Amino acid sequence: GGGGADILTGGAGIDILNGGAGGDSFIGGNGVDIIAMGVFSDDVQDRVQFFNASELAMR
C-alpha cells in the first residue's frame, strides 16, 4: 500500500478492497466516500468508480 490511491492493498489513499486511511466505498474507512472526494481529478474518479463497479459485479 502506497501513499496514493491503492486498489488492491490497504494504503494511505483510496482503497477499494481494504479499509484504508482514505475513502472506501465498501468498508467504512476514515475518509469520505469515493464519489464525494474532491481531491482527485475527474479522470481518477471515473477509473476508481469503474473498479468500484467491477468489484460490485464480482460479488
What does this structure look like?
With 59 residues, this protein is mainly alpha-helical. It has one domain. About 36% of the residues have low confidence.
Could you list some keywords that capture this structure?
single chain; mainly alpha; 59 residues; globular; 1 helix
The H-and-E topology, N to C, reads as H
Q: Quaternary arrangement of the chains shown?
A: single chain
Helical percent range? 25-40%
The number of domains is 1
Total strands: the figure is 0
**Residue ranges: pLDDT <50 for 5 or more in a row?**
22-42
Mean pLDDT: 51
Strand content: under 5%
Q: How large is the count of helical segments?
A: 1
Radius of gyration: 10 Å
The separation of the N and C termini measures 23 Å
Which sheet architecture does the biggest sheet show? none
What shape does the CA trace take?
globular
Helices and strands: which structural class? mainly alpha
Secondary structure topology:
Blueprint: H1 42-58
Short description:
With 59 residues, the protein is an all-alpha fold.
